[in-house]
Amino acid sequence: MRIDIWSDVVCPWCWIGKHRFERALALMGDRAPEVDVHWHPFLLAPDADATPVPLREAYAAKFGGVERTNQMLAQTQATAQAEGLPMDFDRGQVKVTTLPAHRLMWLAGTQGVQEAVGEALFRAHFEHGRNLADPQVLIEAAAAGGIPAERVTAMLGSEEGLAEVRAGLGQAQALGIQSVPTFVINGQYAVQGAQPPEVIAQVLEKVAAEGAPAAPADNEHGCGPDGCSV
Questions:
Q1: What CA–CA distance (Å, rounded) separates 41 from 177?
Q2: Which partner for 14 in 26, 30, 118, 181 could form a disulfide, CB atoms 3.0-4.6 Å apart?
Q3: Which residues of 39-54 are buried (b: 16+ CB within 10 A; e: fewer)?
Q4: What is the DSSP letter of 54?
Q5: Residue 223: strand pairing partners
Q6: Runs of H (alpha helix) within the chain
Q7: What's the pTM?
Q8: Hey, what domains does the chain have and what are their CATH numbers?
Q9: Tens of pLDDT along 14-36?
């Protein structure tokens, strides 16, 4: 079963959704299908560049003030920590372009190590507050998948992977994907948001057994209870 996941590495619900998907497979046990997972790019902040802006400041401007931002981040962080993820929005996170990180994920995909590199990128941002536009941070994340530093440096010093990432962004637009995470199953069925593991497991079982479509979950603009949108 092919699973295509559109995600951004600064989307908290994408990290939560990644682990809920893994838990869903674990819940299914022997009934779990063999999955071929591919990660694809999505830009929650397409206007961002490499200049770091404090995340809380950026969120306050986007979501309507400091109070709402603090409440939203606290709720999201509590959900993540209840899932066993060490998300900490007091680590000095910054808003920057994630285009280089998506290029790294493309490179990781060519070597079959997207899961390890993606997890390292999520942890760098959410657990440690690292700047995902910093080449050194990308080099360290790549090391989690065994990708040599010089390979990452060479990629970042060229346009390698840029066309592929832009194609992935265009594909998301063509499919009408406006929020992440979005899981596309066998190229036909979509599940949006970080749904509970039990729900994901039910969808996978239904698709495997009957090919029945999975209804997308609604997400409000911004970061809602289970996903983030532009």
A1: 11
A2: 181
A3: bbbbbbbeebeeebee
A4: E
A5: 228
A6: 12-28, 55-63, 66-82, 99-110, 114-126, 135-143, 149-156, 162-174, 197-210
A7: 0.90
A8: 2-229 (3.40.30.10)
A9: 999 999 999 999 999 999 999 99
